[in-house]
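Recap from last week: sequence in, structure out.
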Amino acid sequence: MNTTLPFSRERALEWALRVAVAGEFLGHGVFAVQGKAQWIGWIQEILSVDAPTATTLLTLVGLSDIAVAAAVLMWRKVPRAVLLWAAAWGFWTALVRPLVGEPIWDFIERFANWGAPLALLLVYGWPKALREWFRS
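Predicted structure tokens:
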């Protein structure tokens, strides 16, 4: 049985991570654009804003998440700044759960939300210069 891939193992790893990151950000983006009520409540609680403001903010976040998903799938090599943002944002959104009273396990369950973009960033290599963060 031939078990070789039609492309390198590194390329397969890169694409597995790209699909994982895109799926996570597209899913969250769509929920946000749809105005997931629980998330609106969390934004109100954390930022002390009214429901219309929280809804607007959530819509903007959703569009941003969808843009990250599209960038990860469409750019030949995703700019590292996008991946750093995705890792930081994924970490924050996972951390929000225990901050609003959900069990710590809701945070732990979401390690992949920030771990996948961080892993893809590490596959590409940590930048040594500022300009490298923005190159694709």
